[in-house]
Amino acid sequence: MSVPTTRFSNEDDMSLVNKCKAFIETYTMSQWDWWPLQPRVPGLTPGHLRLEWEFCGETLYETISLQESTLIQQTLDAMNEHPPKCYCCKVRPVQLSWTTIFEHIYHIIWKALPIKATSPSPTALTQLSKANLRYTPTRNTCANISPSLPHGKQPLPPQGSPPNGNFVFSIKDMWGFHNIENIENHSQLSDPMFFEELKKRHKSHRWCFQHWLSPYRFRYCRFVQFEEILDEHVSCVGEALPDHHGYTTDYEYDPRPPTAKMPLIDPTHFSVLLRACNTICYSSFLPVYVHKCQHIPADRRFLTRIPQKKGTYDASSRVHAPSLNYINRVAFGVEAGYFPSLAFFLAYHVFLILSGFSFWIYWMAYLPEDLQNASIPLFTIIMLIGTFWGLFGKRISIS
């Protein structure tokens, strides 16, 4: 595996493919998911350079000034050429065997069983049997320890643990309102677990054909403000951060304004994080040239950038409180955003064109003299493509 490098570039990508990407994104006013192609290379303005680096198997770009490039280059020169324990070069070998296959099938069945909450697993029974053998302090021992805490004081949480709070995540429904999900923060929560939970919560609010067949894919999140305008109905007011409206002590995140700039996580970077493999990747059995597992580093680098609310945000529990304080009706979090997928749009167009021409070839093979009716597939293709863009083209303008 090659060692990832950080590069500086002062040249624009003038290839025809990149020009087509720029034209489509400019015309539709929306960023696209160009997989299996590389993301669009942005143009450079005078006095700026492009910083390029590898992350999760993709090349990412950031436009920086000449002064910033000098500081970054000095930092890179002061570092080792390549750390001996670098997560980006850590290869996770996948041994394709019947044992691993049955383990994955077992995990799928175990998650699908409704009795898993009431039936303890063999591991839990083993831990429980070991716990019974541990020493249990007597009542006198507990009595001697309890007075050590001053009256009215609560025991402090362990040092270094994140504060108890929730990440507010929303998915817009078909009526234009938002379904709110509170993702609890805890000491074991890391970037891979958080983004995997985001995909799981998003999938629970989407229909099956929406999740698998929609050409608009869940690829990023917007940092927005929510407000309960109607009872039990939450709406998105717009992009905002808690500090923009004076909520400085109710949320925890870093960096904060004025040093932070919107969005706190770039949509292109967000897309890479959401497309990374889960902890259990069921595509790992495929050959390397078909699927290559890409995992997010197990740290909290991106997690700390998302505003964390102290407490939960639930609109349905406050229906019978007409005199509720306005502060409790407002929340800040992330909203699911979507990119048009090049792969899905091409697949649908290829399917429509091939089906129409297949019928035309069949017609001409058995009825070569009926040319008038042979033109029906052509008009059918035009009608189907027009219907497709009538349904999904409006979504691009709305996005």
TrEMBL record:
Transmembrane feature ranges: 342-362, 374-392
Q: Which UniProt keywords apply?
A: Membrane, Transmembrane, Transmembrane helix
Q: What is this protein called?
A: Uncharacterized protein
What domain of life does the native source organism fall in? Answer: Eukaryota
